[in-house]
Give the backbone structure.
Amino acid sequence: MTTDSRTGAAPAPSGPLNRVDYSERIPNNVDLASDRRLQRALESWQPKFLDWWKQLGPALPTKDVYLRTAVAVGRDGWAHFEHVPMEEYRWGIFLAERDPDRTVNFGKHKGELAWQEVPGEHRADLMRLIVVQGDTEPASVEQQRVLGNTAPSIYDLRNLFQVNVEEGRHLWAMVYLLHAYFGREGREEAEQLLKRNSGDLDAPRILGAFNEATTDWLQFFMFTYFTDRDGKYQLGTLKESAFDPLARTCEFMLKEEAHHMFVGTTGVQRILERTAELMKEHGTAEILPHGGIPLDVIQKYLNFQFSVSMDLFGSEQSTNAGNYFTSGLKGRWMETRRKDDHVLLDATREVRYIEDGRIATKTVPMLSALNLDLRDEYVADCSNGVRRWNQALEDAGLEERLYLPHEGFNRKVGVYAGHHVTPQGDVVDEAAWQARAAEWLPTPEDREQVAALMVPEYEYGKFAGWIAPPKTGINDQPVEFDYVHLADEGLV
Amino acid sequence: MTVTAETAHPAPPVVRFATSPDRYRHWKLEVDGAVATVTLCVDEHGGLVPGYELKMNSYDLGVDIELYDLVQRLRFEHPEVKAVVMTGGLDRMFCAGANIRMLAQSTHAWKVNFCKFTNETRNGIEDATEHSGQTWIAALNGTAAGGGYELALACDQIVLIDDGSSAVSLPEVPLLGVLPGTGGLTRVVDKRHVRKDRADLFATKSEGYRGRTAVEWGLVDAAVPRNALNGEVARRAQEAAATSKRPSDATGVSLTPLERKDDGDAITYPYVSARIDRANHRVEITVSGPHDAPPAEPAAQGCDYWPLAVTRALDDLILHLRTNELDLGIWVLRAAGDPERVLAYDAQLRTVDDWFVNEVRHYYKRTLKRLDVTSRSLIAVMEPGTAFAGLLAELALAADRQYMLAGVYEDRDDDAEPATVVLTPSNDGDYPMGNGLSRLESRFWGHDEDLTAVRARLGEPLDAAAAQELGLVTMALDDIDFEEELRIVLEERASLSPDALTGMEANHRFVGPETLETKIFGRLTAWQNWIFIRPNASGPDGALRRYGTGRKGDYDLGRV
């Protein structure tokens, strides 16, 4: 056993090494059964993960849940459905299939074979990227832990839990990388991922949006739409990484991330359908008394979640982002489909910034603005979703529309931080901002009113009054399928 | 002729540091009882590199390699020599210092290595006076300028001929726009205690000072007329010899040629080997422990005495790698063998009172100091079979980091004995660094309780857990992590700026008090190396490059 005055004693090996049948207990395609390093690391980490799940995972007691479990990376292996007690969920470790000829597609190593080991030169940066990504995964589970108590339906409850277990698996994926490739420091970082907790003042999660409370289901759907979408884009850049295990891990994670997008997109859409229905039915936008969420409140929630998610992309101009790209650690979204030299030494682009109270533009080296490049892709994707939602309003014959606020609205990070920009893109002073902020961002009152609508509906096939039922169920099951069996105490 | 620096210099040759008196071109050695006389008489056409003539007893690295060899041989081969007179073999010229054309045509790296080696040799001369009972006396038969005067400064006493024209001087600042960087500035004030303002006058007046003023200011100890010079020097030599503890009747140990095999990427000596990994910019150095118990009569074994053989090999290897292998930025140090046998020698070196054993111990000390000022990342690795014990443990302590395998490599060598480190009282003061502290004291500077804790465990084999607990290793990892961690650490190191690493390591290695040596290798050398690359010295209009063109340097007068 080794000790270190900074970190204390290293975990003592306990018991024989092969206690666990790794391939059965932990589905994987990384040959866990014959990897001593991984086994040792997981022996120590897995119990801590389960403790964490018990303490900070979903609070609502359940017997079992109809969950998808990834059991292999093949076409159908990652979509295996069954009723499973959540604490027995098999969090697996999967990387997309390896392409032995894969080369680096960008930066100074372009054209070289992808790396199968961590190059010493990039250990610190790679570990940082993985830790930051990994930190977000359990954070959202923590943020959403009490939502089960107010689920609008068993169908939605199941989706919440599916998102939760998959975030858990994404944590496993990042922890796998830390354990397999980053030695003792990696193991220490993996433990820290469980020690920081969302909203914990003493040990908060690394990124701001992951310390915001998820107060209600509207925010949950907004979160899965906007904030999980940030995760999708971050994963998309890591999928391009020259460090092949990271690239393959993220590629597989993206498949699961698509489900979270689905939950967010359809969740908001179903709320809108119900809102539109109530507006038509009662001939007013003030549908709160009729048990619906008013459109302007939905817009405020959208404004909030979009703006805090924009902050996750970091500063528009970032030396780190440029270095990550040039070094091959992190590519651009859809790197291989870009029609340029993938090195970008001479490329430039425009960035907006605030000068003398106005939004101005300047030209900067492209390499310095890669965070913005990614954010622009993200914003374009978000706009598509908003367009789809507006279709629901149009289909209902309503004039009102949702919109994405200006990129400078309510920003704490980057060029707009410290300034006030309205959703329409006007730069205003502090007084003007304070006077109108309640029109743009959810007030405590708004949140209370929304929360008041959140009464659980646990009867199979029934839905709370503020949300429309989905068109179809999960995995071709009917909407009224018994997706979740609540524990007796959960029903009380 | 236009001197061109850094532009048209010839490719530096591979430098070999081994030589012997029968091959000297620049020095003469005469031994007369207890007094030896070494005479500098530089062969003008004997430069190490083409492109310059070594006029007026100016020197280059080749001249200094001979001087180093000579200093070593006086200590080992001449136990009877108790005083050494250094003088010049040209009429009215002791030594004009380092050859300026050589400097002007050399790369920065060459200049830096040259200065480091000459500094080490001068420190070695002082070490002989202080620890070997071999007092060096400079007999300045004529002018000693720049590096020439710095040679004299390394001696215990300086006697200058008083002929109305011979002077001592440090003309580097006024003539060349660089520093007297071989200890000159430091020793004038720190060793000879010349008052600051006088030192300032001295170092800015190119012709220097003669006779009475030189004595009055302390630049020399005596100035005597031509006909009295030999007598005065002889008197001082005899006086010094009389106080020496060196034996008069002992037989010297001949420094026979080193056994050295070099196939380019593997260099092998009897107890030291080096495996070069050019792609990864590193060299794996392994020092092997002794095959047998220590002999009753160490001197009788001569060069084969294990600690001497190890030291000579290490010394040669360090110099070779430092001078000829600039791209190998990481030295991975290992010790292999039976720690018990190493400890037996360690005890002998510590306890036996004998001139030869004393010389071996100090030679090993000087070699470790060479390692301390080497601009390479030093990483010590301890695995099963390691012999980092006693004197060899100094190598690990000299390293910038220490990595120790906890346990064994289970997959391939399950039966091995886990590595241990053993420290002994030798590690607690017998091999001080240039800062005057032991490497243990330096390691635990400001943490007396940690030092006390280590002292309580001297002589005890310390496994990885104990070594980590005591703070003797950077990281102790088991076999699951060890090799991968080491690979990443070494790759990471290789990716960092070599310049920044050199500066960082030099700063971390020398904690605590300043000494003459730390000032020379830190303050003086660092400033000199900065000045070397500044345009005022090496730019097209710089003084160093213009020297000898009939034009002085044009300076950018902005102070930095």
Q: What stands out?
A: The interface with chain A takes residues 406, 464-465, 468-469, 475-478, 480-481, 484-485, 487-495 of chain B (CB under 8 Å). Chain B has a mean pLDDT of 95. Chain B is about 40% helix and 15% strand. The first helix of chain B runs from residue 61 to 77.
